[in-house]
Each structure stands twice: as structure tokens, then as C-alpha cells.
Amino acid sequence: MKVEIYSDIACPWCFIGKRRFDRALEAFAGAEDVEVVYRPFQLVPDAPMEPSPHRAWLEERYGPQSRAMDDRVAAIGKGEGIDYDFDAAQHVNTVHGHRLLWLAEHEYGPKTQADLKERLLAAHFSEGIDVADFAALTEIAVAAGMDRARVEAFLPSDEGRAETASELEHARSIGVSSVPTFVFEGKYAVQGAQETETFLQALEQIKQMQGK
């Protein structure tokens, strides 16, 4: 079974959705036959490459209710073992993080990609790291088991740019408009950071439909 997860590094609900799906997978009898791949999506594709405070950007976009939005996410995240630090978080473009995830999938495989995704989300939301900075991205990639020299050569190059752009366009073409979106076997979609039980039910239903 293949599960493609469309998400953004700068999406707080994507972090919660990942944790919940990971728990569902741990409880799923047949997890060893599930391939999980992360696909790119950008909530703010025109975000600048230079970071600015997340709080200021969100307030400019949503007004006074922005802090309550963050507080709600932080409270839910705490229940999933996530420590959001929205005061430290930086608003910045995520395209290079997505390129790095593309490289991880193609040269290291889904497990390394999933590990990198977790580390990128934590870096952005819990550690206040600029996830557009090549030096920071290199350290995150190395911690996920990727080769330092390869990553250092990759990030400033054009490699993976066209492929990432193509995947971003594909997400739009199949109707992905909000994230996280979980696509099972290229056919069945579950949208949002659903409860773990919902993801587990989806996995079991797809397995049953496959007759396995």
C-alpha cells in the first residue's frame, strides 16, 4: 500500500497530522507493507527567502485572532508530544526544504525522508530555525543520515528544482488545496490532521479492499 502525504514544512497541522498518522501506522497490522512518501505543498508559495517573525506575519494576515489560532494549535500539539514555539518560529519560504525531501526520497528512501520531514517540522516549529538557510538545512539533513558533501553541493545547485516544481503543480492538478492531505493508493484521500483512529480505520479499509 502506498500513502502519499501532501504537506508543508510551515504547516502546523501537518506536524500534528504526521504524529497521528505515525501512531496509526504503529498500530496497523501490515505496516511493513505500507510505503509512506511525503509530497510537497506550499501554503505561501511567495513567502520570502529572508526570515521574519512568524507572529508578526500571522497577525498581519489574520489580525488579532492570530494568537488564539496559535494557542489552539499549541494546546493540541502538546497532546501529540509537540512543543510549538511560535514566538521563535520564522516565516520563510520552504521550497529548499521540499527539494531536500525530494533528494532524500530518491537517494535514501522513504524512511530517511520521513525522518528528515520530522526534523524539518521540529526545526521550524519548535527550534526557531530558518528552514531556508542552507547551512541549517545541511545540519538537519546530516542528522537524518544524509551525506554532508552531497547536501552541500545539492542545495545551491539547480538540482531538484524542476522536479519539486513539477510535484507542486501535480498537487494542484489533482485538487489538493489544503494540507495535510493523505492519498491512499493514488485514489482515496483523507484531508486534515484527523485523529489516529481515523487514520487507522483508513489503513484497515484500504487493506481490506486490496484483499490482503
Automatic annotation (TrEMBL):
Domain DSBA-like thioredoxin, residue spans: 3-203
Annotated organism of origin: Streptacidiphilus fuscans
SUPFAM superfamilies: Thioredoxin-like (SSF52833)
Gene3D superfamilies (UniProt xref): Glutaredoxin
GO molecular function list: oxidoreductase activity
UniProt-recorded name of the protein: DsbA family oxidoreductase
